[in-house]
Amino acid sequence: MELGEGIYLVKPGKVIYDEVSVQYASSSVVLIEDGELILVDTALEEDWPLIEEGIRRAGFRPSQVGMVVNTHLHPDHTGCNHRFQAEHYAHPLEIERTGLPGYLPCPSRLSGRVRVMETPGHVEGHLSVVCGGVVVAGDAIPTRRHHEEGIIPRIHTDARKARESMRRIAEVAEVIVPGHDLPFRVRR
Question: Read out DSSP for 60-98?
């Protein structure tokens, strides 16, 4: 699904809650073409066939991806990172928190039209990726319902920062790609 010029939803996210906790979660995966192919989040390992198919449907091959950017380093957003022989980027606080090797600190600008905004709250080192009016929000806005009802992520490190990040995303977005739901247009 093309979300904007050169911006493709490779795989929508999904989450299943019960009354107490998250039972299942797999992130949205977005491909952005801007001179270089940028992949935002890589879901779970079990999602690889869908991711591979989605990249091909967009007209590319997985081997063409030059940059993988993770909104944060929870496993439901990084499961297929190893499938890409590309530079892997995350927020320095996430790299430090997890101690995972192989990540580079994410720059504030990824290409001519793609930038990164810090959106802490779910975790301190959370990033959202902005391309034109499309914001790949990761778990700063897990689902459409979170946005529409002003609900902060169930899992969060700082409620105030989570609310502020949601507000800032809504201010710049025309389309939000939530971490675990289908993309949606922002109503003004």
Answer: --GGGEEEEE-SS--HHHHTTGGG--SEEEE-HHHHHHH
0.90 surpassed by pTM: yes
Which of 49, 39, 51 shows the shortest CA–CA distance to 12? 51
Per-residue H/E/C for 1-67: CEEECCEEEEECCEEEECCCCEEEEECCEEEEEECEEEEECCCCHHHHHHHHHHHHHCCCCHHHEEE
CATH 3.50.50.60 applies to domain 2-185: no
Rounded-to-integer distance, Cα 70 and Cα 30, Å: 11
pLDDT of the chain, 188 residues: tens digit per residue: 899 999 999 999 999 988 778 889 999 999 999 999 999 999 999 999 999 999 999 999 999 999 999 999 999 999 999 999 999 999 999 999 999 999 999 999 999 999 999 999 999 999 999 999 999 999 999 999 999 999 999 889 999 999 999 999 999 999 999 999 999 999 87
Calpha distance 159→91 (Å, rounded): 19
DSSP letter (8 states) at residue 160: H
DSSP element (H, E) containing 176: strand 175-178
CA–CA dist 74, 149 (Å, integer): 24
